[in-house]
Write a structure and sequence with these properties.
alpha+beta; 677 residues; 41 strands
Length: 677
Amino acid sequence: MTGARSDSSAPPARVVLVGVRGYGAVHAERIARLAERGAVQLVAAVDPGVVIEPPTIYGVNLYADLTEALAAVGPVDVVIVAAPIGDHFRLAHIALTSGADVYLEKPPVASLEDFTALLATEQETERVVQVGFQSLGSRALEMLAVDAVGIGPVVRVSAVGAWSRTVGYWNRSPWAGRRSLHGRPVVDGVATNPLAHAVATALAVVGCRRLDEVESVDTDLYRANAIDSDDTSVVRIRTTRGLEVTCALTLCSAVEREPEVHIEGSRGRATFAYTADRVETEVAGQTRTQITTRVDLLENLLAHRRDGTPLLVPLASTGAFMRVLGAVAKSEEPVRIDPHAIEWEGDGQDRRAVVEDVERWMVKAASSGRTLAELGVRWAHSERDRILVPARIGGIEVALYRDGRGTIPTSSPRPVLHPVRTLAGVVVTANHPADHDWHSGVGMAIPDVNGTNFWGGSTYIYGHGYVLLDDHGVIVGEPPVLQDDAFTQELRWIDRDGSVQIREQRFVAWAAMNKETWRLDFESSLRADAGVTLGSPGSKGRIDGGYGGFFWRFPACENIEVFTAQGRGEVAVQGSVAPWLAWSADFAAGPGMSGPATIVIAAPDAAAAGEPWFVRARDYPGFGSALAWDRPAELHQGAVLQRRFTVATADGRLTEEQTTALATQLMVTHDAALRVE
């Protein structure tokens, strides 16, 4: 690529800094030092999240938009991007097409698709991108590459990182700890951002840098914090050369420790503490410690522009890391760590999660090359959901019925439908969201059945609030019996002592209504071998807390409209008795899964029984029925409680007139729908 300058007397490189807070402030200090040497000149700063009067910072004008800044200051040599991860691709693309080279903070971008596109832009513009994996500028990597430390050919490599992060860290920005935001990928997890250097450095040690040098990636992701992404994970990479790299990383350590990369050679071993550029070796019983220097990556980029010095971390050389990021992004939601194994320290924004013995398990996972699930760690739930029935309409997958085995015990495992999609592919369910891990797709859940929690999470105790007890049950089912576009299933609601509290017969069917809408029929018949009492927080005295029965949890939603024929808005609909309810919103489940949709549910038999709707829109998005709204419901021995819900899932935001017409159609269909025999 072009862009190098051979004239050592060239004027200072004109620089624009994008992102002035957080790590952007570190870049500002670096720019100031280089400016004193005459190497650079800061000409503008960009940060839409900072509004100050007058709009100046670091001695230059502050702009809200990079395009505006570039137009105002004229030709620019280098754009430094220290912005939110989800904005990296857009900003780097603007900079490259303007004729500037780019210094791009890690991770370079938030998806493999963006990575491929940015590589193409780099080639088309004949500019360059240097990625800010600072550890890859360490001279120690050169020593290890030529085996100057004498450990022999590398056999395997691992990385261990044990840091601690507070609640304030996760609350510092809207994208922190998110897998996606507003339908765009973010992937802000332990392995892809805070301790991404550990992954990239371990890969570099074995010479695995490009996309095509990775054969496979295994992920084992967990979270202790209330975030979408992982904060405690093991990632195992196999290179095309047959080498294995295992990275065991956590942000929930009792004591923050220096991250290390461990290299096993045929004649010895080495430990690379990359934050300190320190290499410790053990060969033939002799130990040695060496401290190396490192090359500043911005200075390396300037040298490349000046005289063609090779870039240390060109964009293409981060392809292997991006394969890891892509694997993490495609993995299912991180599994919640057993709450009993989490100790919370501190208060307010300084509160932090400490996972039981996590440092020891990180070391063991790295040294053995096994995941936490493979090691059988007590707090790492090892089972994963099995898909029982895929629901398809005209070849389009609209829902998956899963057994719930991947749900941790304190979230009350149960079979559910997830993901549920519109015919255009918009996902309208969430499974184990960060705010309530026990919320799972579409299914049946009751907070109290004879003292057993079949809802999940903490149990409401009047006068004490919510308390985490060992009172959780599990709903297990026999293999579903398929019949065309429907199935029936026999299920048992089993308490923590192994006794069956309820036997359920479930019927689920699906059918197209038109090109934009499909119908879900969900019927549940509950029968008690002995008498049982069904309860809820509402029946125990919590106002507006009478949830329990059929429940549908939505993913992140914006511009929510929820209404019945009698009322509109959460306050009006919550606790109201109505034969149908509608929910229209812009759903933001993630890349390729987001968009507007309308859900209309009809349940005239529940309304006839006086059971109100439970609705949440402000705190989290979801709705359901309420079998025990403000008083317990008794299910006598041999009695059957049957409820049927007919749901239309439509693409787009329907008008009130269209919604009412659809609800009327559902009401007619509801009575004619197939029943459980």
